[in-house]
Amino acid sequence: MLSKKLAVEGFPLLYSVMLEISAEKICHVLSVILVSLESGSPVVFHCAQGKDRTGIIAMLIEAIVESERSPNIIPNYAASEKFLPEWEAKRDILEAGVQKGDFVSTLRGSPAEGMEGTLAYVRSQWGSVEAYLDHAGFDGKRRRRLRAVFGKL
Fold it and tell me: Rounded to whole angstroms, how far apart are CA atoms 113 and 101?
Protein backbone atom coordinates (compact mmCIF):
# COMPACT_ATOMS: atom_id res chain seq x y z
CA MET A 1 0.00 0.00 0.00
CA LEU A 2 1.33 3.44 -0.92
CA SER A 3 0.56 5.02 2.46
CA LYS A 4 2.79 2.44 4.21
CA LYS A 5 5.59 3.04 1.73
CA LEU A 6 5.18 6.80 2.24
CA ALA A 7 5.34 6.31 6.01
CA VAL A 8 8.73 4.62 5.60
CA GLU A 9 10.30 6.64 2.77
CA GLY A 10 8.78 10.03 3.66
CA PHE A 11 9.57 13.25 1.83
CA PRO A 12 11.93 11.86 -0.82
CA LEU A 13 9.18 9.53 -2.06
CA LEU A 14 6.51 12.24 -1.92
CA TYR A 15 8.71 14.75 -3.74
CA SER A 16 9.89 12.23 -6.33
CA VAL A 17 6.27 11.47 -7.19
CA MET A 18 5.54 15.20 -7.41
CA LEU A 19 8.53 15.73 -9.72
CA GLU A 20 7.53 12.83 -11.95
CA ILE A 21 3.82 13.55 -12.33
CA SER A 22 4.04 17.34 -12.32
CA ALA A 23 6.97 18.02 -14.67
CA GLU A 24 4.78 19.98 -17.10
CA LYS A 25 3.23 22.05 -14.31
CA ILE A 26 6.65 22.68 -12.78
CA CYS A 27 7.86 23.96 -16.16
CA HIS A 28 4.82 26.22 -16.34
CA VAL A 29 5.41 27.64 -12.84
CA LEU A 30 9.09 28.30 -13.59
CA SER A 31 8.13 29.93 -16.91
CA VAL A 32 5.60 32.23 -15.22
CA ILE A 33 8.21 33.20 -12.63
CA LEU A 34 10.74 33.88 -15.39
CA VAL A 35 8.41 36.03 -17.48
CA SER A 36 7.18 37.92 -14.43
CA LEU A 37 10.71 38.72 -13.27
CA GLU A 38 11.79 39.71 -16.78
CA SER A 39 8.90 42.17 -16.93
CA GLY A 40 9.89 43.67 -13.58
CA SER A 41 6.92 42.27 -11.70
CA PRO A 42 7.38 40.97 -8.17
CA VAL A 43 6.89 37.25 -7.67
CA VAL A 44 5.49 35.32 -4.76
CA PHE A 45 4.96 31.57 -4.96
CA HIS A 46 3.54 29.36 -2.26
CA CYS A 47 1.42 26.34 -1.52
CA ALA A 48 -0.71 25.35 1.46
CA GLN A 49 2.18 25.05 3.92
CA GLY A 50 5.02 26.60 1.97
CA LYS A 51 7.35 23.61 2.14
CA ASP A 52 6.41 20.87 -0.32
CA ARG A 53 5.51 22.32 -3.72
CA THR A 54 7.09 25.60 -2.68
CA GLY A 55 10.21 23.76 -1.51
CA ILE A 56 10.55 21.95 -4.82
CA ILE A 57 10.19 25.15 -6.85
CA ALA A 58 12.63 27.00 -4.56
CA MET A 59 15.12 24.12 -4.84
CA LEU A 60 14.89 24.16 -8.63
CA ILE A 61 15.35 27.94 -8.79
CA GLU A 62 18.36 27.76 -6.46
CA ALA A 63 19.82 24.92 -8.52
CA ILE A 64 19.42 26.99 -11.69
CA VAL A 65 20.67 30.30 -10.30
CA GLU A 66 23.45 29.03 -8.04
CA SER A 67 24.21 25.38 -8.74
CA GLU A 68 22.54 22.11 -7.92
CA ARG A 69 25.53 21.50 -5.64
CA SER A 70 24.90 24.80 -3.82
CA PRO A 71 25.43 24.45 -0.09
CA ASN A 72 22.36 26.68 0.42
CA ILE A 73 19.62 24.47 -1.02
CA ILE A 74 19.23 22.02 1.84
CA PRO A 75 19.61 24.49 4.74
CA ASN A 76 17.20 26.92 3.05
CA TYR A 77 14.61 24.17 2.73
CA ALA A 78 15.14 23.04 6.32
CA ALA A 79 14.92 26.65 7.57
CA SER A 80 11.29 26.81 6.45
CA GLU A 81 10.43 24.50 9.34
CA LYS A 82 10.60 27.37 11.83
CA PHE A 83 7.65 28.97 10.01
CA LEU A 84 5.47 25.88 10.35
CA PRO A 85 4.48 25.77 14.06
CA GLU A 86 1.00 27.21 13.60
CA TRP A 87 0.14 24.72 10.87
CA GLU A 88 1.78 21.90 12.77
CA ALA A 89 -0.42 22.66 15.80
CA LYS A 90 -3.50 22.44 13.58
CA ARG A 91 -2.21 19.17 12.17
CA ASP A 92 -2.08 17.75 15.72
CA ILE A 93 -5.85 18.11 15.79
CA LEU A 94 -6.20 16.42 12.41
CA GLU A 95 -3.96 13.58 13.56
CA ALA A 96 -6.05 12.65 16.56
CA GLY A 97 -6.18 8.89 16.47
CA VAL A 98 -3.44 8.51 13.83
CA GLN A 99 -0.87 5.91 14.81
CA LYS A 100 2.78 6.87 15.13
CA GLY A 101 4.56 5.89 11.96
CA ASP A 102 1.58 6.74 9.77
CA PHE A 103 2.54 8.76 6.71
CA VAL A 104 0.80 11.86 8.13
CA SER A 105 3.18 11.94 11.09
CA THR A 106 6.15 11.06 8.86
CA LEU A 107 5.60 14.12 6.66
CA ARG A 108 5.86 16.74 9.39
CA GLY A 109 8.20 19.69 9.17
CA SER A 110 10.83 20.21 6.51
CA PRO A 111 13.81 18.09 7.55
CA ALA A 112 17.07 18.44 5.64
CA GLU A 113 16.97 14.72 4.82
CA GLY A 114 13.81 15.28 2.80
CA MET A 115 15.54 17.56 0.30
CA GLU A 116 18.79 15.57 0.42
CA GLY A 117 16.85 12.46 -0.60
CA THR A 118 14.96 14.37 -3.27
CA LEU A 119 18.15 15.69 -4.86
CA ALA A 120 19.64 12.18 -4.70
CA TYR A 121 16.54 10.84 -6.45
CA VAL A 122 16.74 13.50 -9.19
CA ARG A 123 20.40 12.63 -9.80
CA SER A 124 19.67 8.88 -9.85
CA GLN A 125 16.77 9.25 -12.31
CA TRP A 126 17.96 12.04 -14.60
CA GLY A 127 21.65 12.49 -13.74
CA SER A 128 21.27 16.13 -12.69
CA VAL A 129 18.76 18.83 -11.89
CA GLU A 130 19.46 20.40 -15.29
CA ALA A 131 18.61 17.12 -17.04
CA TYR A 132 15.37 16.94 -15.03
CA LEU A 133 14.56 20.50 -16.09
CA ASP A 134 15.21 19.58 -19.73
CA HIS A 135 12.83 16.64 -19.25
CA ALA A 136 10.24 19.00 -17.76
CA GLY A 137 10.63 21.43 -20.69
CA PHE A 138 12.50 24.22 -18.88
CA ASP A 139 15.44 24.17 -21.26
CA GLY A 140 18.91 25.69 -21.12
CA LYS A 141 17.83 28.91 -22.83
CA ARG A 142 15.18 29.57 -20.17
CA ARG A 143 17.64 28.65 -17.41
CA ARG A 144 20.17 31.18 -18.79
CA ARG A 145 17.44 33.84 -18.87
CA LEU A 146 16.50 33.08 -15.26
CA ARG A 147 20.15 33.31 -14.18
CA ALA A 148 20.44 36.65 -15.99
CA VAL A 149 17.35 38.04 -14.25
CA PHE A 150 18.63 36.98 -10.84
CA GLY A 151 22.00 38.50 -11.68
CA LYS A 152 20.24 41.88 -12.03
CA LEU A 153 18.36 41.64 -8.72
Answer: 17
